[in-house]
Amino acid sequence: MTVRADADPLPRTAAGLIRRGEAEAGAWRFRLDEDGWRDLVEALRHDPLPFVTLWADGRDVHALFLDGGERPLVASVEPYGGRYLGLSPVRPAAAPFERCMQDLWGFSAMDARDSRPWLDQGLWSATWPLSDRPGPVAWPPEPPDFRPVPADHMILGSGPADGGHHAPGHLRLALDGGGAVGQAEWRLGYAHRGVAARLSGLDAAGAVRLAGRVVAGASVAHQSALCRAIENATGQAADIATTRSRVLLAEIERAATHLLDLSRVARPAGAGALAAECERVREAILERCGRVGGHRLLMDCVGPGGAGDPAMDDAAASMAVGVADLLESARDRLVRCRAWPGLEMRVAGVGVLEQLVARTLGVGGVVGRASGREEDLRRLVPGYRREWLDSGVRRGGDVAARIDLRLAELGSVARVLRAAAGSAPAVARTLPGVGEGVGCAEGPRGAVWYWVRILDGRVAAAHVCDPALAQASALEHVLVGAQAEDVAMIVRSFGLSAAGADL
Amino acid sequence: MALLRAILTRGFRPAIRLPAVGTMAVFHVETGGCEGCAMEVAALDGAAYALPRAGVRFVTTPRLADVLLVTGPLTRAMAPVLEAAWHGMPDRKALVAVGACAIDGGPFGENYAVLGGLEGRAPLDASIPGCPPSPAAIVAGLAGLLGASEPSSSA
């Protein structure tokens, strides 16, 4: 690293280096030149600045960080000749994003840890479909480029169509003679629908409708995160009633999706009673949402803009009371089903995600908290109070910890629903709109981030970040050493949705 | 059949005990949507509806299936997979599209990565609209399929 004589003394922190760039959107997005970006990558080697996501908008590459763990800070650089210096050597969590950008825009990350395709299996109608100059497609498609497998291992592949009720993905396991996994690798991209490209050109209401259909298990989270990004871009803040109903709907969704994920992990764990109980309670919640809120999965229940829909706010309050009652009455039975001793033997110590791996790969949400990470974006979301978030973290990092934390969060959901229904929420501070915005939500499975650029009331460019991408990378580490018969249970315990990883 | 219809018209309740209506083996393929329809199909497979007890079984290989149930828009990457599943099924098979995406693409129409819905690409034996359709609507659609195929299955 060289310090130029004519420049200011080099700031020590990565955040300071980003802020030295040219401010482009308020005081949170800065354009760096190639040297500035290189200095930033160098500084990130030692600076713990948390990385969130990386994307492109056709011209620039943007990297979102969380300054001080709470203020969004974006560094932008224009790739020179389609190349930019990759972040994955210093932030391994950036690796899947770099691979997606290579597939969609043709921007290649120099020094990247991995430059193989991630989304593009060679079956699209163009290569680099979102770039200015999409390329032709080679036929037949090249065979998948899997990592080399350890010697004497047997390959076991499953998916994308395995009869399971989940989004398509292919998991390739290398098993040793004893049935233990020596290597695990995903092949994804089957569920890629081009969500970012589809968001461009939509008006705010249309974009939020689409966001509700990105990942069904986190529909409210995606809708709310996009709404917050749009409100950030246009300088409008949600009013008190809307803020409260977003909190209520997000917690109802958290309960429904936690119950779904619990039942999905309990079945392969052989805990049929726990699975059945979760499925019954979830169905009761969904039935109530459909009857009172008009949609079982709470799609189209969140809208952008200042004043919300009073009818929806009333419905959310009514649903919240009912769901809290259901969760409280089910609590004892769920605890009894969990206490079955056979289950503990099956799940304890299995599928351990170390805290360091979770932090390195950017795994948050329930999975991150079950590995001891204090990651909960609800502390940044308007409408929540810190004292409500009382379910804590678990240190085990195994399947048992993820089950226990989900059960604990079900209890916490009931308490938040009661507390939020009866208190005036804090409203977000209004910032001047600069045409670009960042919004987030803590979805049932982890942090959801949106970035939008708004021009003339329509979305000009957008980026979506779902926790599934980081979970998929983490699973490749967690599955190594597991027994083949535990693989399905471990994958389900992450609540991974390929719909969110592929977008 | 009549019993199943009677229950449906009375209003579908979770955890209801469905009468046996003959058997139907269903292979479910999610072809790349938001997973919402797949979650509603999963609800039918679970304890809340327990559809397998009514004779509608979900199988894990197309070789044992009578019905190919498709949810989600057909992505270009899933098209060969779906085709292989269809050709892997024994004859006298049915193709069912569940949800707006599987029928006509819904919010995910044709683009560089997506072909769209099945309508117009393959002869559909039943299509169950909705975004997503409720479990009750999916059961009703499958029941209609059983009703339609009853004469031939008894022959």
TrEMBL record, chain A:
* Superkingdom of this protein's organism: Bacteria
Q: Which residues form the NADH-quinone oxidoreductase subunit D domain?
A: 276-423
Segments traversing the membrane: none
Keywords associated with the record: Oxidoreductase
GO MF term list: NAD binding; oxidoreductase activity, acting on NAD(P)H; quinone binding
| Pfam families, A to Z | Complex1_49kDa (PF00346)
Write down the PANTHER family for this protein, in alphabetical order: FORMATE HYDROGENLYASE SUBUNIT 5-RELATED, HYDROGENASE-4 COMPONENT G
What this protein is called in its record is: Ni Fe-hydrogenase III large subunit-like protein
Taxonomic source organism? Gluconacetobacter dulcium
Automatic annotation (TrEMBL), chain B:
Q: Quote the SUPFAM superfamilies the UniProt record gives.
A: HydA/Nqo6-like
Highest taxon, organism lineage: Bacteria
State its cofactor: [4Fe-4S] cluster
Q: Which UniProt keywords apply?
A: 4Fe-4S, Cell membrane, Iron, Iron-sulfur, Membrane, Metal-binding
Among InterPro entries, the record links this protein to: Complex_I_20kDa-like (IPR052375), NADH_UbQ_OxRdtase-like_20kDa (IPR006137)
One example of the protein's molecular function in GO is: metal ion binding
Every copy of the NADH:ubiquinone oxidoreductase-like 20kDa subunit domain together lies at 34-143
Entries under Gene3D superfamilies matching the protein: 3.40.50.12280
Q: What Pfam families does UniProt report for this protein, alphabetically?
A: Oxidored_q6
- Signal peptide per UniProt: none
Protein family (similarity comment): Belongs to the complex I 20 kDa subunit family.
Q: Name the PANTHER family for this protein.
A: FORMATE HYDROGENLYASE SUBUNIT 7-RELATED, HYDROGENASE-4 COMPONENT I
Report the protein name in the record.
NADH-quinone oxidoreductase subunit B
Organism this protein belongs to: Gluconacetobacter dulcium
